[in-house]
Design a protein that fits this description.
The complex is a heterodimer. Chain A is an alpha/beta fold. Chain A has helices spanning about 10-30, 65-80, 95-105, 120-125, 135-140, 150-155, 185-190, 200-210, 230-240, 260-270, 285-295, 320-330, 355-370, 375-380, 390, 395-400, 405-410, 425-440, 445-460, and strands at about 55-60, 85-90, 115, 155, 170, 175-185, 215-220, 295-305, 330, 340-350, 415. The chains are: A alpha/beta, B mainly alpha.
Chain lengths: ~475, ~325
């Protein structure tokens, strides 16, 4: 039986369809040719604000400070701007970078104020995603009220030298929440006095673990998501006198994996890791807090801004009241070693370049309001960590939590990672390799050498033709 | 007098198009144009959502374009493709993916077919059993990943608790190289064995009963009946299920993301997870597009080989 003759669009129709698709594709691909690749400037003076109802949207990851900020801003900012509602949109920590930068890539954001990690600044500035607020800061912000490095870390690009600020550099953000690691220790197990040096801390944890079966000596971040394992290694690296890179020559190979870097990796994998709980190789903020709250760790390290829940009797087995918990838990600055460096955490607030003009004006007004001395103290009382020096020394801040003094003492000791545009890839390389070393998938020396080699290759790959990102 | 219109024809399509419009319909609106009008919304949707992105990805794969850096896309021709094919990082992920696909699909096929065979022999409660077995397949992979992550936790998980009560030691399910990949295979198997079971059950229930009756009369053993009747008749259908599962497993992302984040190190990073990192950590859109196109090509080639084998099997 002969097959029926095929019925369908003719050759001309098929050709026309194909041509239309190719043309549409080429047109769509060409749309970014005029894209601006440098950050647009914000006005020095805040433009006239709208009297119409307006929602000012932030984007952050889901953790207690995000909810505290929304409650605080809606309670306080609306006293001055009753037509404004503050909305803090939250995403899981692991999606935080992607959630912001995929919207930046689309040149359209559903947020006005992205809360960037300090290391994201380079990528956002280079791509023109956030406003240059240098002139705005000069006219509206009292820069002398801050520790210079805090102001630089959350806003300056190119990156400042550790502990300093370049007054001639441009600013793209202002501090929102300060943070660093605190050492959390069990006073009832190791005594009231915290260890003062890193080596002493390790031996105290070792003894505590041996004396108290079922309780691990240490708990710290080891996961390969976000920047968990990378921050842990960077902290130990700093304490043992290592460097992450030479910023001036953009050299990582031979700097990160020098003798100090190798010693830090050896201490982390061979001395600290054996003191952690079995299976803790994927722990991050929540898991460390859970171990402390359940009385399963002698000494733990965590971000201060995430430590508030430890004092909640509903979440802890250490006591039925806050006081009972505080009888057992102590908070201290990190022990020192060859240096006394501590990791810089926290985030700054920035203005989306794709936000409507009225929202950008409102965002600038919010930033000016937020950085006022009286508001910074109120933010401290509400559970936030301010950045102004006067707020850090205020009783509102120091009395708000047992770890706030730790933060105030840690400010002069802070060191940050790189805030270059390649940050996301650099941190992923470090995270996966440190995680591999901590979980026995790589030898410590091999892991460190791989980090240095792969990170260097990322920094050197700008002229490479093809395969970027592998 | 003209010839009468034949009632039947070897060209049914032509007859349909020659049919005059129904009363009340515009004279210009033939059946053919009506058909085009009906399928065009679906066709346009397909073009917009599938064909156009595919063509765009194909174009980008020959460029150094980055979605966040903006600026024009520069043609680098096969630069991305050669870099991907020569990359040791990609080879490592390909090996991980291969181990995962083979392990997961083999386990699911063995278990799925066994369960289906046992269910098919029951006369009572078959429907209820089938429904209960299908529950894991109806859950979102993210939900499955999250509760398995809790269950496999070395410190607080129920699996280690059960092992402990049996006097066995703790196992680091998600943080050791070998156990992490095995855990992924086990979780995927838990969720997708019902799919194989369902297809196999359809095949088993379609086997004509008279064949078994004839075999019984000939006093054939159980094993003989299974080997000569059941398996040959169900095998082609089972292979289709294996094909679907293999394609699904090849592009595994969600379980890896939730359970291990590719760790420890990169030891459970599959190709799809690696593409995600290339695409969204550095926003190397050109490289990621080439990577995705290569993955599609691999699936197409393997599927073609597989289908040819399946056709040959049917012909034999």
């Amino acid at each position: 039986m002969p097959y029926p003759k095929r019925i369908g669009p003719g050759r001309k129709v098929r050709l026309a369809t194909a041509a239309m698709l190719v043309a549409t594709t080429m047109a769509a691909c060409g749309q970014d040719d005029s894209a601006n690749s440098s950050a647009p400037k914000a006005p020095a003076t805040i433009p006239e604000l709208t009297k119409d109802p307006l929602t000012l949207s932030f984007i952050w990851f889901d953790w207690p400070p995000a909810h505290a900020l929304e409650a605080f801003a809606n309670a306080e900012y609306t006293k001055e701007r009753p037509n404004v509602t503050i909305k803090v949109k939250t995403v899981p920590n692991a999606n935080w970078h992607d959630a912001m930068f995929t919207q930046f890539a689309a040149h359209k954001t559903d947020f006005d104020i992205p809360i960037l990690d300090s290391q994201h600044i380079g990528e956002a500035v280079t791509n023109g995603n956030i406003l240059d607020i240098t002139d705005f800061v000069k006219k509206n912000i009292d820069v002398k009220a801050y520790n210079p490095y805090l102001l630089a870390a959350y806003g300056q690009y190119p990156q400042a030298e550790t502990g300093k600020r370049d007054e001639n550099a441009s600013l793209y953000g202002l501090p929102l929440l300060g943070d660093t690691w605190t050492m959390i220790y069990r006073k009832d197990l190791i005594g009231d006095k915290p260890p003062q040096t890193w080596d002493e801390m390790i031996s105290v944890a070792e003894k505590c673990q041996a004396d108290h079966p079922g309780v691990s000596g240490l708990a710290f971040h080891q996961a390969n998501g976000s920047d968990a394992a990378a921050v842990t290694y960077n902290t130990v690296n700093g304490i043992y006198g290592g460097n992450l890179w030479d910023a001036k020559t953009r050299k990582i190979e031979g700097v990160l994996n020098d003798a100090a870097g190798q010693e830090a990796m050896d201490v982390l994998v061979n001395k600290m890791k054996p003191l952690t709980a079995k299976g803790s190789g994927n722990w991050f903020i929540d898991e460390v807090n859970a171990a402390v709250a359940q009385g399963k760790a002698c000494i733990a390290f965590n971000w201060i801004a995430a430590s508030g829940g430890l004092l909640d009797p509903k979440q802890s087995t250490l006591g039925t009241t806050r006081e009972q918990i505080l009888d057992k838990l102590g908070f201290a600055t990190l022990p020192s070693g060859k240096t006394n460096l501590v990791p810089l955490g926290g985030m700054g607030m920035h203005v989306s370049a794709y936000s409507p003009k009225a929202n950008q004006a409102e965002a600038l007004n919010f930033m000016k309001w937020f950085e006022r001395a009286d508001i910074q103290k109120k933010w401290a009382a509400a559970g936030g960590v301010p950045s102004r020096t006067d707020a850090l020394a205020s009783p509102e801040f120091l009395n708000a939590g047992p770890f706030n003094q730790v933060y105030a003492d840690s400010v002069p000791r802070m060191r940050d990672m790189w805030n270059v545009p390649e940050y996301a890839r650099l941190v992923d390389i470090e995270n996966t390799n440190v995680n591999a070393a901590l979980n026995g998938a790589k030898k410590p020396k091999d892991a460190l050498d791989d980090i240095a080699r792969e990170q260097q290759s990322v920094l050197d790959s700008s002229g490479r033709k093809g395969g970027g990102g592998l | 007098m003209s010839d009468p219109v034949p009632l039947t024809t070897d060209h049914p399509g032509q007859v349909a198009s020659a049919t005059p419009p129904a009363p009340g319909r515009s004279r210009h609106l033939s059946d053919r144009w009506l058909a085009v009008a009906f399928i065009s919304p679906a066709l346009l949707l397909l073009l917009a959502m599938s064909v156009f992105p595919l063509l765009w990805a194909l174009y980008l794969s020959f460029t150094d374009y980055s979605a966040t850096r903006g600026g024009p896309a520069h043609f680098i021709w096969f630069g991305n493709y050669t870099a991907i094919l020569a990359s040791a990082q990609v080879h490592l992920r390909a090996l991980t993916t291969l181990i995962y696909v083979v392990g997961a699909v083999a386990l699911q096929t063995a278990l799925g077919f066994s369960i289906a065979y046992l269910i098919s022999r029951r006369t009572h409660g078959r429907g209820l059993l089938t429904t209960l077995f299908l529950v894991p397949m109806m859950l979102s992979p993210v939900v499955v990943g999250l509760f398995w992550r809790f269950m496999l936790d070395a410190q607080f998980g129920v699996i280690n608790s059960m092992l402990g009560s049996l006097g066995l030691g703790q196992v680091e399910w998600l943080t050791r190289q070998r156990t992490a990949l095995i855990s992924l295979i086990v979780v995927d198997t838990w969720q997708w064995t019902p799919f194989i079971m369902l297809i196999a059950l359809a095949g088993l229930t379609a086997v004509p009963k008279y064949l078994y009756e004839a075999a019984s009369i000939d006093r054939a053993s159980e094993w003989f009946r299974f080997r000569t009747i059941t398996l040959p008749l169900v095998w082609p259908l089972l292979l289709i299920a294996v094909l679907f599962r293999a394609i699904e497993a090849f592009r595994l992302f969600d379980l890896v993301y939730i359970l291990t984040s590719g760790g420890p190190g990169v030891s459970t990073e599959t190709l799809s997870f690696h593409v995600y990192k290339v695409a969204f950590l550095g926003f190397n859109t050109g490289t990621a597009s080439a990577y995705g196109i290569l993955m599609v090509l691999v699936v197409i080639v393997l599927t073609q080989l597989y289908l040819r084998y399946l056709n040959k099997l049917k012909e034999d």
